[in-house]
Structures are given as C-alpha cells and as structure tokens.
Amino acid sequence: MAERRDDETESRRILERVARETAPGGASFITRTAKDARDHVTAADADRADPIEYWGTRIGRTLGVMIAIGLLVWLVYAVTRGG
User: Are 63 and 70 in contact, with CB atoms under 8 Å apart?
Assistant: First the structure.
C-alpha cells in the first residue's frame, strides 16, 4: 500500500511540473532554458558535500562551454574567410 501511495505522489508531482511548464502564464521557454543552462554549468545538481566532485564538475562544464564557444567562433571565421 505504501508503494502505491509513493507512486501516486510521484505521478502527481510529475503532472504538476508538466502543468507548470506548459501553462501560458508560467515562465517562458527561453527563461526556463537559460535557468537550466546556468544550473548545469554551475553544477547545481552536483553533491555539495564532496568538494572535489563539485568543483571538478563546475570546472569541466565551464571548460566545455568555453571550448564550444571557441569552436563556434572558429567555424564562423573559417566560413567567412572561405577556408
């Protein structure tokens, strides 16, 4: 019985989140995406009790973003210069 109650609670939580994300009066898609990206890079999901994991995750994700931006700049430069 307790397992069924847990399943119902989880289902209600999921449905409420979907309703909140799709509601016209809620935060816009761009706002949610920017917040999710910021949380990802700042390692909001990492275990703060483990400083090595927390800082390693932050450093790795920040370097990944910097490399992606650098590659994008290089691509635009290569396309505009013709090779």
Answer: no
**CB within 8 A of 83, min separation 6: which ones?**
none
Entry pTM = 0.57
Sign, Cα dihedral of 12, 17, 19, 25: positive
Q: How far apart are CA 55 and CA 44, in angstroms?
A: 11
Angle of CA points 27, 25, 10, to nearest 5°: 70
pLDDT single digits (tens) 26-37: 567 788 788 888
Q: What is the pLDDT of residues 67-82, one digit of tens each?
A: 999 999 999 999 999 7
Can you read off the two tokens belonging to residue 23?
A: 């509601």
| Cα 69 to Cα 23, 41, 72, 79, distances in angstroms | 33, 14, 5, 15
Measured distance CA(17)–CA(4) in Å, rounded: 20
